[in-house]
Profilin (Tilletiaria anomala), 126 residues
Amino acid sequence: MSWQTYVDTNLLGSGRVSHAAILGLKGGVWATSSGFALTPEEQRTIVSTFDAPDTAQANGIRAAGRKYFCLKADGRSVYGKQGADGIVCVKTAQCVLVCVYLSPIVPGEANKVVESLGDYLISAGF
């Protein structure tokens, strides 16, 4: 399965994620949804957040030009909110899933979809 298929089918296709990207831990965008553009700086910052979660808690999370208030940050997951919208980032062995959900999607629905794909990729060695 291609990385783009994971974005299109597993994330956007769930109806619980509005925009998504898969970033390589060593850099680069492996796949992204249409119109979801992360700057190189945003990419680097999101990937490095998992090594220093306190940074996200102090500064928030930026993705596609939007800043999200950090609700949770640890070595595996980062959750953020901006009004009724939010962001979920999950780190695997080789990549980071970056997913944004827009209202009326609720956080728990998006979190479950992204975390489940993260679990699958980890179990597959990715």
Observations:
- The first helix runs from residue 3 to 11.
- The chain has a mean pLDDT of 96.
- Strands lie at 19-24, 29-32, 61-63, 66-73, 77-82, 85-91, 95-101.
